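Thread: quick sanity check before group meeting

JM: Hey all, I'm pulling together slides for Thursday and realized we never actually wrote out the predicted structure for the chain we discussed last week. Dropping the sequence here so it's in one place. If anyone has concerns about the input, flag it before I start.
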Amino acid sequence: SIAEWKRKLKTVKIADPREKPRVKNCNTLIAQTIITQFIKDKYNTQKISSIFDLGTNNYTWLLMNGNRMIHKYSGETGLGIGFKAGKVTNASINRAKKKLKPLLVLNSRLVSNSHVLATAIFRKATNLGVFGKWVSKNQPSSFQVLSAEQELKYNFQAIRLSFQELSDFLAFDIGGGSTEFISFKDNHYHGKSVGLGLRLLKETCNTHQERLGLFQKELDKVRFKAQGKLIGIGLTASYLSLVVKRIKHYIPSLVHKSCISKIELEELKETIWSKDDDQNSHKTLLGYLMEPHNLEILALSVDFILLILDKFAASEFVVCDYGIAYGYTASWKDLKH
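JM (edit): ok, ran it. Output follows.
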């Protein structure tokens, strides 16, 4: 019972951080054991499979029970931090390995069928082949570096699966290493990939205005016209929903299909650029960041989307919380949303 656990935990002495630990920290292993046993008790593990979407700045992990999604989790890879001259730094590679290793171990205990999809940073970097081999070594899987066309296709399929009621739409996915635009009208699909993303622009440009200028230049080349709903797909849009709507704990039903207005983005922009760190709204905002350095990325994403809204004369956009990894499963038979 809860009361028994409380009594037991009170007997545990808090360790002095200055002393060398006498017992190995096994919290990660314990968490893995609990999650593994829970899933084994609830689902037929022979049908469990997983999809990893490894991006320039973040990753997404999906667990599928047959053709039904049962869990989704996202975190930061930071692979693009320090990216220069076509190479990812050793520090960024080691940081990503440290963050992914516990998840890969857990995943290997849960599934025998795993798919790893690598995106923009793996196309741009010349030294990530070894990282791909490391992933395959720690998690037997099919490792695939997606082309820009495949990213567009899987994003489109994710929207079609989760917005089946829409006959036409315009969508965007602002990633860490690239940005995708998708147009769907009269049952015809068109896509355009722009080789600019939040993380890599931050690493290669010195100022916020320089980054905005480059993005505006590429945005001007997108010839799609405004039509139907404007949809923001992927982690950037989902994360903005958490911040704008002040959703403290990720709940898919609150994020997916949430609507973010231009007015809300302008208010968020004002809060981000506030110089008064004592301002309550600014302090609240910092509580939603996974890492303190993400504030600059958040500011850039807000301005990018404001530019997109202006281009297509839109006053709002709708969030699609299911991205590339989910769209990848569309080729599986009898997929259930």
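AS: nice. The longest strand covers residues 68-76. Residues 90-110 form the longest helix (21 residues).
JM: adding both to the slides.
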